[in-house]
């Protein structure tokens, strides 16, 4: 019996020692990963160890769960990225407003696909403040006088070929039809009529009358002129008055040159302008035309001269200066062809006295 009673006491001692060892050993945390180390085998866990492990891994009464902490951190990261993106967007937008913007062109179709091309916008600060760098140089006097010389020769040949110097009757000319011509030449209507009827002066008088009928339409001062309709309307708005004001004259001069530069091709002349010119000449020159001459051929030749004059009119218009034809004559001589005067220079200032580009052709 004595041996039997000592065995349970030994078992109790072992169990008590094992329980003490398990209680004093530190609890293992479930949420802290670590590399397990090889240790000596321990005693099997009891209920007390399991309870301690559960209490250490559960939520704390005074702390924040680990999942909530991770969620807050991710939310802050997303918010920071969004704020940074907004700041970058506004900085780039501000930079584009300061001159580095990109302008989108309309959609273009190429290679079977629609594409949107972008080109940098040229800011106004890069454009030169003066347009003079883009305007052509004025023509030399020789280029202008060359055209005037051609018209003079054509008129001389036209008068010789299609008009006679035979005696004419006084009733063939109506002085009322000579009013504008007499005013331009500063001749009395009676004196102008005499020059037409005089056989010795008729050819030169007819040349002067044709030159006035045609060339007076080249400087834009007459309502019916040889300039394009749009240009003619502006010229009629008071261009001669602009010559007395330097600011207006300068603007007017620039407008002419810019218009001529942009319209690289001379605008087509209205057929009515040529017809009106020929009809005005026929009112006086009808009685002096040669008999037996093909009328269509004469009119065609005169149309050619008017076309040359229209080209001269456009040339004079596109120059920075302004020009006038001087048809004035005197009792002592007959002017067969007018002078061409430059009224304002290339700087839009009035030239006083006017500069003569083409001398009058005077017959004593």
Automatic annotation (TrEMBL):
Record-given protein name: Uncharacterized protein
Subcellular location: Membrane
Transmembrane portions of the chain: 66-91
Membrane topology: Single-pass membrane protein
PANTHER family: CHITIN-BINDING TYPE-1 DOMAIN-CONTAINING PROTEIN (PTHR15549:SF27), PAIRED IMMUNOGLOBULIN-LIKE TYPE 2 RECEPTOR (PTHR15549)
Positions with biased composition (Low complexity): 10-32, 39-49
Cross-referenced InterPro entries: Immunoregulatory_rcpt-like (IPR051694)
Residue span of region Disordered: 1-62
Organism: Pseudopithomyces chartarum
GO CC terms: cell periphery; membrane
Keyword Transmembrane helix set for record: yes
Major subcellular location class: membrane
Keywords: Membrane, Transmembrane, Transmembrane helix
Keyword Membrane included in the entry's annotation: yes
Domain of life: Eukaryota
